[in-house]
Specification:
Blueprint lengths: L11 E2 L5 H9 L36 E5 L5 E3 L1 H5 L4 E8 L11 E2 L9 E10 H8 L7 E12 L2 E10 H4 L5 E6 L2 E2 L9 E3 L12 E7 L6 H5 L2 E2 L8 E2 L6 E5 L3 E2 L6 E3 L2 E10 L5 E7 L7 E2 L1 E2 L11 E9 L2 E11 L24 E5 L1
Parallel strand pairs: 2-12, 17-24
Antiparallel strand pairs: 1-5, 2-3, 4-6, 6-9, 7-8, 7-12, 9-10, 9-11, 13-14, 15-18, 16-17, 18-22, 19-20, 19-23, 21-22, 23-24
Bound molecules: the ligand Nc1nc2c(c(=O)[nH]1)N[C@H]1C(S)=C(S)[C@@H](COP(=O)(O)O)O[C@H]1N2 and molybdenum atom.
The site of molybdenum atom (MO) has 6 residues, from loops.
Length: about 375
């Protein structure tokens, strides 16, 4: 029997990471924080999240079906998609579960800390003209996206599927992407085709895309109506997870301790650097704290790669490091006025925890 609600407290752990969480974490890796040095994340350093298995795809036989409530269903080969108008866009992707493992009690799932993020240049063809060519019927309210990957989650056998409202799906920057950083998609990032919905959390960017279906009713499948819902109490209301909240990450300075990851550096001027993003609107301010979030000073903001409104912005801050132990933090504010909180607010799925990152540093 399929479950209709997000994970409940008996599935929430208070103690150490479990074997199942470790196994997920070993399959789905984060972006090493030192990779914040790159404005565009090299594909192999981009974070990865795969619910089931990477599907095997025979590209010669592969077609994208455009079906459902359309006048003219389409079957598009990779070649046909590649001969349509192409758009390249730097886009920051972040998993909605980023920050989950820092929540207490800890929702049991992929145990991300803070670095489930990456920025790539995605190349593809816009979705909207294809939907127009197929001819949407007047009663269409949502577009459903189906991946080739199949599995079982919470007892429910499913294809990986997510939908968008018609308004979102018709945005001109929603892409059917076949290239990442100028190369064909890697198997783990969705070869041969994935959806890119700039600004939204990762789950929306359906990989291994095989069908685009016009619907007259809102989609109520597992990854839409059960997972990716914010619920703070067992019977409380559910709010869908949509766009990324503002977040800033710091490239950890100095050298790390292998096991604790505490950073060591020498006294003197220490430039701090990082990147900040939001899916709600452009990041307009980043502040840095060297005392664990008690006092804040403005960082200098740089321009996003190719000035993309959907990619992270770099920031720098000159710190005069005196001997001692520090808790370094940064926090982003976006143009809608949203700022990162000091402390996480809990929800049962562990979604959109954008509480500030803390980097332990010893200057000696
Ligand atoms: N078909 C399919 N698409 C998917 C997923 C998946 O498991 N299957 N995972 C989603 C989630 S939760 C995230 S965070 C992003 C991760 O994209 P990446 O692995 O390319 O970074 O892909 C999304 N698209
Ligand atoms: Mo995700």
């Amino acid at each position: 029997m399929a479950r209709q609600t997000p994970p409940q407290p008996e599935e929430i752990a208070a103690g150490s990471i479990t074997f199942e969480e470790l196994r997920l974490a070993a399959r789905n890796h984060a972006m090493p924080l030192e990779a914040l040095r790159y404005p565009i994340t090299p594909a192999g350093l981009h974070y990865l999240l795969i619910h089931f298995d990477i599907p095997s795809v025979d590209v010669a036989g592969w077609r994208l079906s455009v079906d459902g409530l359309v006048e003219r269903p389409l079957e598009l080969s990779l070649e046909a998609l590649g001969s349509r108008p192409a758009v390249s866009l730097p886009v920051t992707l972040e998993c909605a579960g980023n920050g989950r493992a820092l929540l207490e009690p800890r929702p049991v799932s992929q145990p991300w800390i803070t670095e489930a993020v990456g920025t790539a240049i995605w190349t593809g063809t816009p979705l909207a003209p294809i939907l127009k060519e197929a001819g949407l019927r007047p009663d269409v309210v949502e577009i459903l996206f189906t991946g080739l990957d199949r599995g079982v989650q919470d007892g429910e056998t499913q294809d990986y599927q997510r939908s968008l409202t018609l308004d979102e799906a018709l945005r001109e920057d929603v892409l059917l992407a076949y290239a990442m950083n100028g190369e064909p998609l890697l198997p783990q990032h969705g070869f041969p085709l994935r959806l890119i919905v700039p600004g939204w959390y990762g789950m929306t960017h359906v990989k291994w895309l095989s069908r685009v279906t016009a619907l007259a009713e809102p989609f109520r499948g597992y990854q839409q109506a059960v997972a990716y819902q914010i619920q703070t109490t067992e019977d409380g209301p559910m709010t869908p997870v949509t766009r990324m909240l503002p977040r800033s990450l710091m490239e950890p300075p100095g050298i790390p301790d292998f096991f604790s990851r505490t950073r060591y550096l020498s006294p003197g001027p220490c430039p701090l650097r990082g990147r900040a993003w939001s899916g709600q609107g452009r990041v307009v301010q980043v502040e840095v704290s060297v005392d664990g979030g008690h006092s804040w000073r403005l960082a200098e903001l740089g321009e996003a790669p190719e000035a993309s409104p959907y990619a992270w912005r770099p920031w720098t801050f000159m710190w005069q490091a005196a001997p001692g132990a520090y808790d370094l933090c940064s926090r982003a504010t976006d143009e809608t006025g949203l700022t990162q909180p000091l402390d996480a607010s809990w929800n049962s799925g562990g979604f959109s925890n954008n509480a500030i990152q803390r980097v332990a540093v010893v200057v000696e």
